[in-house]
Amino acid sequence: GIQVEQSPPDLILQEGANSTLRCNFSDSVNNLQWFHQNPWGQLINLFYIPSGTKQNGRLSATTVATERYSLLYISSSQTTDSGVYFCAVDSGTYKYIFGTGTRLKVLA
Amino acid sequence: DVKVTQSSRYLVKRTGEKVFLECVQDMDHENMFWYRQDPGLGLRLIYFSYDVKMKEKGDIPEGYSVSREKKERFSLILESASTNQTSMYLCASDDYLGYNEQFFGPGTRLTVL
Asked: Are B94 and B31 in contact (CB under 8 A)?
């Protein structure tokens, strides 16, 4: 089955810093999402992005489907950005496969 | 806004008990999913359903069953809870029309003693 790898596994930033999270996948995908899991466990949709680039405030994402990777950019990070970021992909089987996540901690 | 709700945020049960976790979505989505999340293992799919009364096994179905009698409701059943089923359980739904953004409930943290 399709493999999803996220890097880095852990990231510590000072408030105001920028960061890039990466998601590599092993096969072509129909769908790709980025989620943020907050400290209470809720998974919040950030982007639905099977290809192309999207921006939402300080966050943006780019997926290069032909090269099988996606990037999530966080600019001017805030303490509320802390949590775990997941990439999930679907290759057309009804099922999303999740990466193991990037754990981000933003220090004040 | 899509809303997915789960019956409990925290649940404590004893070994051998039968446990029901309920999930309800209000967006008329076709597909519903149950995942469990454990440290270092990410999210793993237990079961999913693409229609009423239909179900498909995910990656780790052993020890679980599901029920979908109505489109909006998907139940996860632990027939005889065991300590290795202590975990965070997450329900999700989506509408598979080629474009299937998946939405999650708040999660149920289950502890089996």
From this structure: yes
CA of B27, closest CA in chain A: separation in Å?
A: 16
Q: How far is B28 from chain A (nearest CA, A)?
A: 17
CB atoms inside a 10 Å sphere around CB B63 = 14
Taking only residues 31 to 70 of chain B, the set having a beta carbon closer than 8 angstroms to any beta carbon of chain A reads 31, 33, 35, 37, 40-43, 45, 48, 50, 56, 58
**Lookup: tokens for B109:** 């943290």
> pLDDT (tens digit, 0 to 9) for every residue of chain B, 113 residues total?
669 999 999 999 999 999 999 999 998 999 999 999 998 888 999 999 998 989 999 989 999 999 999 999 999 999 999 999 999 999 999 887 666 788 999 999 999 99
